[in-house]
Amino acid sequence: MARRLAPALTAAAALVLAAVAAPPAAAGHGPDAGRALADQAVAYAATARFQVHANAVAAGYVPDKYCVFDKVGRTGALGYPHFNHKYDNSVDPTKPAALYYEDDGRGGKRLVGVQWLVYDRDQKLTTDDDRPTMFGTAFKGPKPGNFPGQPVHYALHLWLWKKNPRGLHETFNPAVACLPGTTRP
């Protein structure tokens, strides 16, 4: 377990150092680019320990037994969501509300992405004056709840642990797949 975690922590440390050392103008996206990269590195370092699935569960992330895929556009999947509702409404890079895992091919789970979720203040799908941003990116939404009782919300995905060919903050990742029989009936 320590051998698998050590490279991730080394990579996270390198990202943090690179983000902090690089001048914001070098990124070519304005003065907030350096902050966005630094916050991504912080999120990477904070979630590295969750590569060990048991660490995520011990930290309060509750696994869903079903893998989530894009039923509408069929453009990929999220994987298995693990929510820690203590972090709903967090815009702290170290406290995502959800972690996403995929099957690792050996009977375990591999961390692929993270998500922040913020409730819409007025609970109206037609207004967005309270849309949060992180990593220099606006959250998507407002969106209706995904299950009974979930409020109208904004969401921001970050594919730190598995590259998403569609983009770092896209909702579904075509590189993530749900195995047959693992999706909600």
List the helices and strands and how they pair.
Layout: H1 2-21, H2 33-47, H3 53-58, E1 62-63, E2 68-69, E3 77-83, E4 98-103, E5 109-119, E6 133-134, E7 137-138, E8 140-143, E9 153-158
Antiparallel strand pairs: 1-3, 2-3, 3-4, 4-5, 5-9, 6-7, 8-9
Structure description:
The protein has 185 residues and is α+β, with helices and mostly antiparallel strands. It has helices spanning 2-21, 33-47, 53-58, and strands at residues 62-63, 68-69, 77-83, 98-103, 109-119, 133-134, 137-138, 140-143, 153-158. The strands form two sheets. Strands 1, 2, 3, 4, 5, 8 and 9 form a seven-stranded antiparallel sheet that branches. It has a two-stranded antiparallel ribbon with strand order 6-7. Helix 1 packs antiparallel against helix 2 (33-47). The longest helix is centred in the first third of the chain and has 20 residues, at 2-21. The model is unreliable at 8-28 (pLDDT under 50).
